[in-house]
Design goal:
Layout: H1 8-15, H2 22-39, H3 49-78, E1 82-86, E2 90-93, H4 96-103, H5 111-114, E3 120-122, H6 126-140, E4 145-150, E5 158-162, E6 165-169, E7 182-183, E8 189-193, E9 196-200, E10 203-207, E11 210-222, E12 229-238, H7 253-258, H8 260-264, H9 281-305, H10 319-322, E13 323-328, H11 335-346, H12 351-361, E14 362-366, E15 376-378, H13 379-385, H14 387-407, H15 412-418, E16 421-422, E17 428-430, H16 431-438, E18 441-444, H17 479-504, E19 513-518, H18 527-543, E20 552-557, H19 565-583, E21 591-596, H20 601-607, E22 613-616, H21 628-634, E23 638-641, H22 647-654, E24 660-661, H23 666-675, H24 679-685, H25 687-698, H26 710-718, H27 728-742, H28 745-757, H29 764-776, H30 793-804
Parallel strand pairs: 1-4, 1-13, 4-12, 13-14, 14-18, 19-20, 19-22, 20-21, 22-23, 23-24
Antiparallel strand pairs: 2-3, 5-6, 7-11, 8-11, 9-10, 11-12, 15-17, 16-17
The protein binds pyridoxal-5'-phosphate (PLP).
Pyridoxal-5'-phosphate (PLP) binds near residues 4, 519 and 600.
Length: about 800
């Protein structure tokens, strides 16, 4: 039952009571001292906090190793169907505390030690965090699953705020070493690029290629208290030792060694775009790199499991019964033509057989509806980089169009719409279409995730089974429980306020409403709408400083893609408004605005449990699901949101009256698109909107540079695709209802309880259970793999039990 902040967040709360036995503590201490001495070569006099972190991490890792080996051995011997989750992003965050919880090793370790760990920030936002949650859930549900991706040397950039602007810093997360990974140079695999296709009498041959090596790094993925440890395998690019030393560069040895960087750049850095397709050659190389290395691994493992069958030629007939590959968006879509290439060119299967096997192997998850996010690779680039794959894609398209033409004769418009190749402008390959025709299952995102506040009112069953949360409904009118829940929230807020004061020297009023809007900065996510509300509140206070006001701390955080000018201007506007509001003595502690620097997984884990009000205010029809919305719900925040993405299901589960729903519905937006959106109309009709916009335009928030926000203003009036003004009035009114309820703490908390009780559906364990049965054809199990200190026969017994099920 994980989610973006992952299941383990809720487990964190429970295990504090300490499952750790005395003998475990003693053993842990021994391991810790041994690693401090032998691994870190330090004694207590010179050891730093970081040394303590590494010593503890290595100790905890030691506890995983036996279970890890045992699990893999178990898979080898029982040969279950394997599930492969292919993703260009795994946004893992920190590992130590979660791993201790999963092993039942959690004890009162100094928080500061956990904080020494670097986030594994190999993701941008929801898509990457989802992949991380799914790995956790697949292990918890006992699936023989693998995550495959790229070991970026630099993850998502670190965001610094300087004079109100976002400044990017490289995320050198491996600088001090990564105790969780194990390099496997012995399993290095070649990946080919460029070259040409030669037609021979026994089929097409891809020749004269340039080779880059893919070095695997394995990270253990422990399930929750079930002794299962799965593998996340990330590939790192290595130049072959003869790189550039064969032909034309002979003699320039130094230059050849320096040029090894060219090959190794493939895994250098994560592209920092969220929901945006940039179309760079290096990115296509990354996408093919992970796909080519992973498929070799998958096929090697498949053939290996057949090693002892009587026949010498291996049959691929059973491939889809043994292998399921899930594509996390279109980023790994090249896996489809790559598997076809392997089947047809290398394994010599006929096309139709190969295609049938391929389709039955793949499933694809779509993550976005924004057109600018859809991957459409230029045919020319594909032809240069992967000429054989382009041929295969053309063949797939030909067969696909033939089928459509047979079904819908003379429907040229349909053929054009459904083609894998788009002809308008330069020729491009529509990767979503490729995924749809190459998969047997296609799904969108929605319904997932978790993380919860500390309480034991319903026992601990919910830790494995979030549907148990429904039991909380019986406690909605229980005064003691209401007090407990609000106390936990108050403690979380206090802790976060202390963190902010310590790290950023900002002081906030812990009894104010924590109104939180954290996610990537995007026009469609409408941080601007929130900003206009803040300005409106400010103007109301200024107009009548003695009028009653429900105090708020508005916290906005998120990274802007470095090349996204408008998103960077939005950050600058928020920090500029904050500067004015926070310094105004008339406002005092009634309204504070914080821009939360460097929002990332480990910061989400701090801010979400401290939130009262969750902002989920995208234009209806633009957020495919969202996952942040679910994390907040599960953590005892109320939602102000539009009827968009999973907000819709949240309202369905909790009842629409238990969320603050406002604004246009999808139909209203569509209607407005037909009639035309007139921003000026709202500006003229709504005095508070007009005042806020006039202030931004006149330099009220940027007195040294009155023109600073002219691009933003121009966008809002003339090309606002996300119709900020159209929802302003309803949003502000809805916020008034929020404030009114917040004045009544008991009623507020009752609504919180109803939300938590309704949040079980959004568990990623629940989602993965559905994927397992509906898409992958595998069965979740709560069987525990016998731990390494039990006799080998125990493994055979568990295997037999599994077969009977
Ligand atoms: C969950 C999460 C996201 C996704 O948030 P949305 O509100 O769904 O966009 C982004 N970043 C981090 C660090 C997260 O934990």
């Amino acid at each position: 039952m994980a989610t973006p902040v992952s299941d383990q967040e809720k487990r964190k709360q429970i295990s504090i009571r300490g499952i750790v036995g005395v003998e475990n503590v003693a053993e842990l201490k021994k391991g810790f001292n041994r690693h401090l001495h032998f691994t870190l070569v330090k004694d207590r006099n010179v050891a730093t906090q970081r040394d303590y972190y590494f010593a503890l991490a290595h100790t905890v890792r030691d506890h995983l190793v036996g279970r890890w080996i045992r699990t893999q051995q178990f898979y080898y011997e029982t040969d279950p169907k394997r599930v492969y989750y292919l993703s260009l992003e795994f946004y893992m965050g920190r590992t130590l505390q979660n791993t201790m919880i999963n092993l039942g090793l959690q004890n009162a370790c100094d928080e500061a030690i956990y904080q020494m760990e670097e986030d594994a920030g190999l993701g941008n936002g929801g898509l990457g965090r989802l992949a991380a949650c799914f790995l956790d859930s697949m292990a918890t549900l006992g699936l023989a699953a693998y995550g495959y991706g790229i070991r970026y040397e630099y993850g998502i950039f670190n965001q610094k705020i300087k004079e109100g602007w976002q400044v990017e810093e490289a995320d050198d997360w491996l600088r001090y070493g990564n105790p969780w990974e194990k390099a496997r140079p012995e399993f290095m695999l070649p990946v080919h690029f460029y070259g040409r296709v030669e037609e021979t009498k026994d089929g097409s041959k891809w020749v004269d290629t340039q080779v880059v090596l893919a070095m695997p790094y394995d990270t253990p993925i422990p399930g929750y208290m079930n002794n299962t440890v799965n593998t996340m395998r990330l590939w790192s690019a290595r130049a072959p030792n003869d790189f550039n030393l064969q032909d034309f560069n002979v003699g320039d040895y130094i230059q050849a060694v320096l040029d090894r960087n060219l090959a190794e750049n493939i895994s250098r850095v994560l592209y920092p775009n969220d929901n945006f397709f940039e179309g760079k050659e290096l990115r296509l190389k990354q996408e093919y790199f992970v796909v080519a290395a992973t498929l070799q691994d998958i096929i090697r493992r498949f053939k290996n499991s057949k090693r002892d069958s009587a026949s010498t030629t291996i049959s691929f007939e059973t491939f889809p019964d043994k292998v399921a590959i899930q594509l996390n968006d279109t980023h790994p879509a090249m896996a489809i033509p790559e598997l076809m290439r392997i089947f047809v060119d290398i394994e010599k299967l006929d096309w139709d057989t190969a295609w049938d096997l391929t389709k039955r192997t793949f499933a694809y998850t779509n993550h976005t509806v924004l057109p600018e996010a859809l991957e459409r690779w230029p045919v020319q680039l594909m032809e240069t980089l992967l000429p054989r794959h382009l041929q295969i894609i053309y063949q797939i398209n030909q067969n696909h169009l033939d089928r459509i033409a047979a079904l819908f004769p003379k429907d040229m418009d349909r053929l054009r719409r459904m083609s894998l190749i788009e002809e308008d402008g330069g020729k491009r390959i529509n990767m979503a279409h490729l995924c749809i025709v190459g998969s047997h299952a296609v799904n969108g995102v929605a319904e997932i995730h978790s993380n919860i506040i500390k309480t034991d009112a319903i026992g601990e069953e919910y830790v494995k089974e979030l549907s148990q949360l429904q039991k909380l409904n019986d406690l909605v009118d229980d005064d003691t429980f209401i007090r407990d829940i609000s106390k936990v929230k108050q403690e979380n807020k206090l802790k976060f306020a202390q963190y902010l004061e310590k790290e950023y020297k900002v002081k906030i009023n812990p009894s104010s409403m924590f109104d939180v809007h954290v996610k990537r900065i995007h026009e469609y996510k409408r941080q601007l709408l929130n900003c206009l509300h803040i300005i409106t509140l400010y103007n109301r206070i200024k107009k009548d400083p003695t009028a009653p006001f429900v105090p708020r701390t508005v916290i906005i955080g998120g990274k802007a893609a470095p090349g996204y000018h408008m998103a960077k201007m939005i950050i600058k506007l928020i920090t500029s408004v904050a500067e004015v509001v926070n310094k105004d003595p008339v406002v005092g502690s009634n309204l504070k605005v914080i821009f939360l620097e460097n929002y990332r997984v480990s910061l989400a884990e701090k801010v979400i449990p401290a939130t009262d009000l969750s902002e989920q205010i995208s234009t209806a029809g633009t957020e495919a699901s969202g996952t942040g919305n679910m994390k907040f719900m599960l953590n005892g925040a109320l939602t102000i949101g539009t009827m968009d993405g999973a907000n819709v299901e949240m309202a369905e589960e909790a009842g629409e009256d238990n969320l603050f729903i406002f604004g246009m519905r999808v139909e209203d937006v569509a209607e407005m698109d037909k009639k035309g959106y007139d921003a000026m109309k709202y500006y003229k009709e709504l005095p508070e909107l007009k005042q806020a916009i006039d202030q931004i335009k006149s330099g009220f928030f940027s007195p040294k540079q009155p023109e600073l926000f002219k691009d933003l203003i121009n966008m809002l009036f003339n090309h606002d695709r996300f119709k900020v003004f159209a929802d302003f009035e309803d949003y502000v009114q809805c916020q008034e209802r929020v404030s009114k309820l917040y004045e009544n703490p008991k009623e507020w908390t009752k609504m919180v309880i109803k939300n938590i009780a309704a949040s079980g559906k959004f568990s990623s364990d629940r989602t993965i259970t559905d994927y397992a049965t509906e898409i992958w054809g595998v069965e979740p199990t709560d069987l525990k793999i016998p731990p390494p200190n039990e006799p080998r026969e125990a493994i055979e017994e568990t295997a037999r039990a599994l077969k009977k099920m």
